[in-house]
């Protein structure tokens, strides 16, 4: 017997409508963006804020106090350069996103090159093609399927020294932990050279966001692949498809080319052909994460919860640390399959790996699971958390009603067990 029988009949349905909506959003990542970019008022993500310049005066103005901005407040280009390498001493096989993180908010600033070198001008609002990105916040799963985005929160004319307070600079590659450079106290005239940032492989991560087969591709296959990538950047997907098809014909084990072929097919809405290309990519390199993620996203549109569960299980086995969205999808699948303990575990991981609450619905899903298991105080805590994380979500009023019902039911349960009800529960 479901504990939801203690709640109004429409309560569970209202919750699941919201969850299905957000699952649909994740399933459309091949065409849309997510992560730390803005998705409007859905409550799915938050937009990084631009640090505001502190006022030079507070309270009543003293006529003898100068209001001239400090030199720390002037915005100028701040240049950073250096090198990224893996902990085995080699350069990453693909360009890596370079992140400026201020007060916990990540802002992509550019990429390393194919040799691992980077030269960045902070806050220049650079446009970045995510086909070269790994872990780009505008591509929540790091698959490189979004075509172009601007750095969120970028400051057009540069940054000030004061804005660098509380900021750090690092590389971003799923499955790896980057060395971090603290920028607090940095001056505009300081040397831009940061040295080498090492990417340390995380324990228990089996998957990679780059394919080991790329280095074995013959010259002709690489040439066709690069032509296909250039055409995809220009959104000439049909021509890109032809070049990428040529690359995999020359080298059938070219996992990265199969993956990019799938992306070009997806852009042309050839979903069945895209799925076959992603499956070929997986066959060529089973530890290459990107095609697994795309196959999981394609499964979402089917509403086949067992398939979604299996696909997300594979992603999380390869990398259990980098993708809170995959844990969320896995939790929703397990919940619909009535595997409540597994659903709760996955939902808790989704919440844990999303400390900045870019996907507040993880808390809502966890609350739903806990309510179904009869843990009304726990469910109430998560639902209240959702309201605080997504105060402008379109379903905020219905969730408030759900919170009220949970308070009532928690009170009924507490009274039945002989425990004193709280004032809120007595209402």
Put the structure in a nutshell.
With 427 residues, the chain is an alpha+beta fold. It is built from 13 helices and 10 strands.
Tally of DSSP helical segments: 13
Order of helices and strands: HEEEEEEEEEEHHHHHHHHHHHH
Which CATH architecture of the largest domain would you pick? Alpha Horseshoe
How far the N terminus sits from the C terminus, by CA atoms, comes to: 27 Å
Measured by DSSP, the beta-strand proportion falls in: 5-15%
**Main beta-sheet strand count, sense and barrel state:** 4 strands, mixed
Number of strands: 10
- The CATH homologous superfamily of the largest domain: Tetratricopeptide repeat domain
Q: In words, what does this structure look like?
A:
The protein is 42% helix and 12% strand. It is of the alpha+beta class and 427 residues long. Helix 1 packs antiparallel against helix 10, helix 3 runs antiparallel to helix 4 (255-267) and helix 8 runs antiparallel to helix 9. The strands form 3 sheets. Strands 4-1-10-8 form a 4-stranded mixed beta sheet, with no helix packed on it. A 4-stranded antiparallel beta sheet has the order 3-2-7-9, with no helix packed on it. The chain folds into 3 domains: 1-32 and 293-427, Serine Threonine Protein Phosphatase 5, Tetratricopeptide repeat, CATH 1.25.40.10; 79-201, Carboxypeptidase-like, regulatory domain (Immunoglobulin-like, Sandwich), CATH 2.60.40; 211-287, Serine Threonine Protein Phosphatase 5, Tetratricopeptide repeat. The protein contains 13 helices and 10 strands.
């Amino acid at each position: 017997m479901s504990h939801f029988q203690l709640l109004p009949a429409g309560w569970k349905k209202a919750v699941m409508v919201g969850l299905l909506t957000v699952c649909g959003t994740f399933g459309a990542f091949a065409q849309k963006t997510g992560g730390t970019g803005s998705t409007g008022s859905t409550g799915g993500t938050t937009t990084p804020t631009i640090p505001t310049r502190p006022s030079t005066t507070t309270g009543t103005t003293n006529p003898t106090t100068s209001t001239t901005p400090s030199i720390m407040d002037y915005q100028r280009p701040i240049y950073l350069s250096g090198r990224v390498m893996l902990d085995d001493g080699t350069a990453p096989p693909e360009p890596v996103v370079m992140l400026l993180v201020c007060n916990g908010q990540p802002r992509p600033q550019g990429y390393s090159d194919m040799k691992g070198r980077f030269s960045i001008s902070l806050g220049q609002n650079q446009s970045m093609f995510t086909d070269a990105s790994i872990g780009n916040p505008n591509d929540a799963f790091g698959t490189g399927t979004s075509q172009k985005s601007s750095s969120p929160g970028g400051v057009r004319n540069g940054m000030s020294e004061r804005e660098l307070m509380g900021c750090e600079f690092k590389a971003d590659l799923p499955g790896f932990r980057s060395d971090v450079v603290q920028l607090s106290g940095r001056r505009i005239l300081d040397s831009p050279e940061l040295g080498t940032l090492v990417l340390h492989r995380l324990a228990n991560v089996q998957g990679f966001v780059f394919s080991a087969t790329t280095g074995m591709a013959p010259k002709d296959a690489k040439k066709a692949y690069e032509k296909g990538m250039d055409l995809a950047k220009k959104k000439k997907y049909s021509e890109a498809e032809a070049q990428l098809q040529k690359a995999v014909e020359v080298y059938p084990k070219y996992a990265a080319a199969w993956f990019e072929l799938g992306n070009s097919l997806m852009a042309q809405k050839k979903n069945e052909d895209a799925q076959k290309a992603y499956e070929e990519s997986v066959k060529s390199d089973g530890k290459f994460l990107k095609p697994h993620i795309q196959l999981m996203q394609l499964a979402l549109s089917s509403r086949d919860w067992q398939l979604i569960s299996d696909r997300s299980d594979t992603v999380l086995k390869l990398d259990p640390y980098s993708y809170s969205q995959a844990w969320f999808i896995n939790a929703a699948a397990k919940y619909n399959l009535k595997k409540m303990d597994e659903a709760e575990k996955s939902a808790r991981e989704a919440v844990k790996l999303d400390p900045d609450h870019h996907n507040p619905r993880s808390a809502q899903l966890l609350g739903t699971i806990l309510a179904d298991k009869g843990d009304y105080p726990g469910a109430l805590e998560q639902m209240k958390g959702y309201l605080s994380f997504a105060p402008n979500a379109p379903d905020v009023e219905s969730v408030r009603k759900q919170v009220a019902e949970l308070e009532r039911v928690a009170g009924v349960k507490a009274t039945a067990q002989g425990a004193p009800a709280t004032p809120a529960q007595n209402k």
